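Open question from group meeting: does this chain pack into something compact, or does most of it stay loose? Before anyone orders reagents, we agreed to write out a predicted structure and look at it together. Recording both the input and the output here so the notebook holds the full record.
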Amino acid sequence: MNTLMLSSKSYKESKEHDFGDCFISDNGNDVVVFDCGSNEHAEKVIEYLENNYGPDKKAIIVLSHNDSDHFNGIPKLIEENKVEKVYTILARFSGKEKTNCFHLSQNPKCGIL
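Structure tokens returned:
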């Protein structure tokens, strides 16, 4: 099992926001991504999947909680067809976060627990 931690500290966009960390866990068959709070995290996940498995590999996403700094990169992964499933908790939101979470829950490729 391999685990890779992605920190947003060096990202250009992190100077204004903290996007949390992103973990990629790979058991040689399944790739599980824990949180993905920025597009730069998403780009690194896509690069990992394609470099290690080819263009068709998809990841299982697990969200620790439903704050934007933990899920903002997930729409990019979905748009690039890199998501097999999404596991998270249901939570109440207001404003923009509700729209983002609702978008994820309506995607037929994702399951919200």
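Observations to bring back to the group:
Confidence is low (pLDDT under 50) at residues 92-113.
The helical segments are 39-53, 68-71, 74-79, 96-106.
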